[in-house]
Amino acid sequence: MSLELDRVVFIGRTFAEYVAMFGLDMAKLQGRRILDCPAGACSFTKEAADLGIDATASDMAYQLSPAMIRQKGLADLGHTIDKIKQAKNDYIWTNVADVPALAAQRKQALLLATEDMDRRPERYVAAVLPKLPFANHTFGLVLSAHFLFTYSEQFDRAFHQSTLDELLRVAKEVRVFPLVSLDGKRSVHVDPLFKRLRQKGYTVVEKRVSYQFQKGADSVAIIRRQ
């Protein structure tokens, strides 16, 4: 049974998870402006900023107060954990021991993120994709996790295309993880959209990464302007 979600969930992942899933080189993060979008309840921006990395997070949920975001995050976490319990065989329980450990990790990321929203609100920018309130080439790198391609049934190809174009407008490089949808299969949008980007002159590389939790989700797309 594959994971079935009836909405886009606001889930938190940690800095360490981001480094693994995006195949990041820590030494190359310093000196780059980085955007996490849509960032959800992830603690990447908080933990990156603590390390002196210039990171910004953007998500439509940031229109809400940190307290309301925390409440939404806890509700979505409970919803997601219930669904994962029903589809445990679709996940690899190597780096995370079990469902309670996963819930604790996701909750910790949420709490770190929402605490930082109170502390450094300027780093958390409300935006509704496919539009972002940033100038062209504002960032050196965009990290986009568990949204594009993950929700392939919920969002059509036109939305995926518009969103990728917008991310590439504001950054020199965009990394997207994973390339599979909720059912663990390669998204039907991946190949047509990557073909189009290559035709427009972008380089698109798919790279295997060390991170894997959802079965089949073990590659990141690295898209760069030439």
What does this 3D model show about the protein?
InterPro entries: SAM-dependent_MTases_sf. This is S-adenosylmethionine (SAM)-dependent methyltransferase. Keywords: Methyltransferase, Transferase. It comes from Shouchella clausii (strain KSM-K16). GO terms for molecular function: methyltransferase activity. This protein has 226 residues and is of the alpha/beta class. The protein has a single domain (15-224), classed as Vaccinia Virus protein VP39 (Rossmann fold), CATH 3.40.50.150. It has six helices and seven strands, in the order H-E-H-E-H-H-E-E-H-E-H-E-E. Strands 3-2-1-4-5-7-6 form a seven-stranded mixed sheet, with helices on both faces. Helix 2 crosses helix 4 (99-119) and helix 3 (66-86) packs antiparallel against helix 4. The longest helix is centred in the middle third of the chain and has 21 residues, at 66-86. The protein is globular, with a radius of gyration of 16 Å. It starts with 14 loop residues before the first helix and ends with a strand.
Helix/strand layout:
Blueprint: H1 15-21, E1 33-36, H2 44-50, E2 54-59, H3 66-86, H4 99-119, E3 124-126, E4 139-145, H5 157-170, E5 171-177, H6 190-199, E6 203-208, E7 219-224
Parallel strand pairs: 1-2, 1-4, 2-3, 4-5
Antiparallel strand pairs: 5-7, 6-7
Helix pairs in contact: 2-4, 3-4
